[in-house]
Task: structure prediction
Amino acid sequence: MTIWWFILWSVLKVAVVTVVMLLGVAYTVLLERKLVGRIQNRWGPNRVGPFGLLQPLVDGAKSFLKEDIIPTGVYRPLYLLAPILALGCALISIGVVPFGAPGVELRDVAQLGGPWYASRVPSGMFLFQIADVNVGLLVILGVTSIGVYGIALAGWSSNNKYSLLGALRSSAQLVSYELALGLSLVGVVLRAGSLNLRVIVEQQATNGMLSWNLFGGMQFVAFFIYLMAAYAETNRSPFDLPEAESELTGGYHTEYSSMKFAMFFMAEYGNMITVGCVATLLFLGGWTSPFGDWIPTPKNILVQAFLPLCWFVLKVFSFLCLYVWVRGTLPRLRYDQLMNYGWRWLMPLAILNIVATSLWLAYR
Amino acid sequence: MHLILFLVFAGFCLGGAINLLIQSHPINSALSLIVVMVSLAVLYLLLGAEFLAAAQVIVYAGAIMVLFTFVVMLLNAGREAHTLGSRAALRLGFPAVVAILAVIATVILRAQGLGVAKLSDGITSTEELSTVLFTKLLLPFEVTSVLILIAILGAVALARHDDTDQRANVERTGK
Result:
């Protein structure tokens, strides 16, 4: 009997997280348009709803209602599969991310309603994580590496030279920068001694901001490499060569219209959020408070449960703002510069960082 | 639960492998190979080898197969010519395959002490795995890396063209 409760609970969690994630994606787009607008000294969208807050909903409705065109020359099965693959992979990897203190169970919250409710709820139904996987970090990397196929297949099946060039650029870029990205995470893993995201965060929890991997863990070089590689992985400027409008019209999604185009768009922003979550977990102390023990733990059990969630969301939000800021500031690189930078600077730097971290851990 | 998952993903694996052989378009074959690799990763996961499963997805499905599809896309390889197969292959090939499978099956069924791979909840942690790999199995591990090095050297030697070679190539392809 209890197994069905757990399955039901998991399905519920997946549904809620998916909805929240999609809403997050929609509002990240708005955040970007607003912030870039302010950076360029204009207002950005402000007509639909108060402060333009309903703009994402209207955009979504527009994508749904637009005519869906499938060009004649495309290779249909892959052309239809590609956006599904891209969006699916973007949504799956969030499943292993712990959003809040992972020890919080449904039973703790049910306790508020009285002991009768609490006794009905089986223990082990955790609130803030869909799956606590021992190799959570690797799962995220693996799902990201499968996500490349969405872009590659889209470009190839479209039967369009711009799409193909965009897809080739994108896969080359992803494969190159994935190396630097993976290596930059090794320092953090060495320090935590585990690939489990929960353990990695708990190891940074002791002294607030001072024990974050970014500061106390001396992983600022790794953070820098991660940041650069993450921009490249998500095809964001200054590394947005796969969709460089001035050279490739639209890159891999040139031939896509209406909701299929929107799926690629959502996948890109979903990946941005995932990357922000991983950065938060690995370098910025995850759901833990940046002030450590300086502020006392609140008494109310609900506040206790949801405060970590707020910290987590706040950290991811700042990371997303940084993303937009960079996009609004830096011009696009040339392709040879991109490859040079990835292979000749970031990768050796990441390897040096691993060596330095190991030495430091061995002789401190 | 484990048995159902095993049957489903073993089915995917076999289906992908057969599809890989019968598809005439290279990119479809490459995609079937990805299906095979991912379902193999799930089978590893069912055996409790989490790290191996993740590595399988990242290295094989993620990195190596991207290169495969990359090459297919870059060369824009078209449909392969379909032959009906020679008569010799039909008459000798299938019995030979059956015979080899039968031999392998009997050997495996007869042999005792090959070790048991059990579908269980027990999960091997990355730490355990690496301890075994770098202490008990250090020699085979290093020998394998030398083997890979030899393969790399071989690939470089084969792929390197002398000038004369290149000229001959150009003449042959007429480019």
